[in-house]
Amino acid sequence: MPQLPIDQSLKLYEQGSRLIPGASMTNSKRPSEYAFGAFPIYIESGHGVKVVDVDGNKYIDYILALGPITLGYAYDEIDNAVRAQMQNGVLFGLMSPLEVQAAQAVIEAVPCAEMVRFFKTGAEATTAALRLARAFTKKEVVLHCGYHGWLDTISCDRENPGVPQGLRESLFAFPWNNEDAIKVLLQQHAGKVAAIVVNPVNYYAIDDGSFLRFLRELCDEENILLIYDEIVTGYRLSLGGAQEYFNVIPDLACFAKGIANGYPVSALCGRRGVMQLCENLLISSTYGGETLSLAALIATHQIYRDKGVPAFLARQGQRLMDGCNTLATKHKVPAIWEGYPCMSGYHFAYDSTEINRHAMTFWLQECAARGILFRRGGLNFITLSHTDEIIDQTLEVCAKVLSQLAEAVKEGTLEQQLRTTQATRGRYEQ
Hints:
The chain is α/β, with parallel strands linked by helices. The chain folds into two domains: 7-73 and 309-429, Aspartate Aminotransferase, domain 1; 91-289, Type I PLP-dependent aspartate aminotransferase-like (Major domain) (Aspartate Aminotransferase, domain 2). It has 14 helices and 14 strands. α2 runs antiparallel to α10 (291-307), α3 runs parallel beside α10 and α12 crosses α13. The protein is globular. Mean pLDDT is 92; it is low at 422-430.
């Protein structure tokens, strides 16, 4: 089996661990999330769908910055728009005309959008949505399903040290597609619920939109705002996100990943009657009008329209899903690629939990050693740069790794073939 040389990554990680808590700015990028010791840690550069690590190894990437890259790394048309704006300045003490142009681009694309506010991160947008909903409805309780960022007011129902206990009485979680659970929460907090916030899909299963229609009708009946967290779905399922895909329109929606091909910008948008209240609330960001990201957003939106990007992502993602499922069946590996093709998930389904964990680590290390980067059971993202040739190359590697995985499991040598040590396998392998 090929050995992946990552000496510089490991050396840099040792230094970074002393300087940066957790060694990473993003929890999901930590080495323990992948196959520590047999997987790259630091990426030096990226072009199209290919990235190069600090050791000079080259890969076809399906992690794609955890989702923001939708066209490709260093995509010329986007970067040229940014370079042109860079000549005119990045940030001013007054507003930039790009704010108006970017807002118009979002409004033209997103069904619910009649007004827009820009931020830098998805967590900012979702937190602003909650403040706006509470101010508009004059109620405080929020019911939610899924992850919506780390800020206190949207994560306070989680067991996170440092979150004020009092905030936990304002946010309550419910399972996806569980109408009864929502009805119980509404009874428990009758007359107090300001909003229901959801990721508008279950990422690992295809949906028909019926749950969203239930939420829409319920929110209308109960005078509650319906908020979609379209951080992941926006500009992937369709140009206008899941709301356009299912034709079930929320009152407010939040966008970030996918909105500007990796440049840091997020958006809160929604119907005018609600959004206008932002003018009177303390929802403000020095960097909300930063021009480089707004220039990238405008250029990205134009490419989405000109090149039919969502349809391309779905088509290429389906080729990857179908190919991997066919290969898994051929090699008698109980693995399933499922969900929406533009952002499919996958998992192993052996009878043993331990074998599933080891199989995932083996899969990651062997694919990486052959130049393909996947996440640990997370979403496989597709970009406009994933050509037929790239998908074919990927499937060739997948075929080899699945074949070796089947043999290792059959012979009982799977754990011995892992090139991670017990000390470096992280929370998934201990």
